[in-house]
Amino acid sequence: MVDNNIVMESEKCIECGASEIDGYSCFEMFQFPLVWEHNDPQLYDLHFWLVSCYMIQHPSNYTKDGYETMINLFIGAYDNKWDIDYILRKNKELVSNVTKITNPLPSNERKRVFRRWAMTIENIYSGGENNAINNINLWKETIRKDIKI
Ligand SMILES: [Zn+2]
User: Fold this and answer.
1) Which of 138, 132, 128, 126 is nearest to 42 (CA)?
2) What is the pLDDT of residues 95-146, one digit of tens each?
3) How far apart are the CA of 27 and the centre of ligand 1, in A?
4) Angstrom distance (rounded) from CA 3 to CA 23
5) Please, what is the Cα angle at 8 between 65 and 106, to 5 degrees?
6) What is the pTM assigned to this prediction?
7) What is the CA(56)–ligand 1 centre distance, in A?
8) What is the CA(80)–ligand 1 centre distance, in A?
9) pLDDT band at 1 (very low <50, low <70, confident <90, very high)
10) Positive or negative, the Cα torsion across 12, 16, 22, 23?
């Protein structure tokens, strides 16, 4: 099944490893916190982190340069505790130096390599709306450890 550039096989995302829950694909589970954050400004403050965590776990959607830019921004923002305005400014600056961010290949021609992560969107979805803030903060911490550099 191909759904918005995500491929699920045997009920698992072949790239991030998230298991399908309640019949939802990895991408469908990602839509839930994007809705929850509209009900909670504190959750909305984590929008950058939610989206970056999800993007980082699906490298096939990006060019090599695009992906590296994303990782550099994530690490810079995390390690230096940048505030959100600074992150967005920095993002603009970094992105303007990259010719192409998204993978130009059609979804069915992209190479997807499975990588095991401590947490995936599966944990955010299954933790539910009430735990979303804690879980997204945890997700970003575990990804920071997983990408080490
Ligand atoms: Zn996935």
Assistant:
1) 132
2) 898 989 999 999 989 999 999 999 999 999 999 999 999 999 999 999 999 9
3) 7
4) 13
5) 45
6) 0.94
7) 10
8) 27
9) very low
10) negative
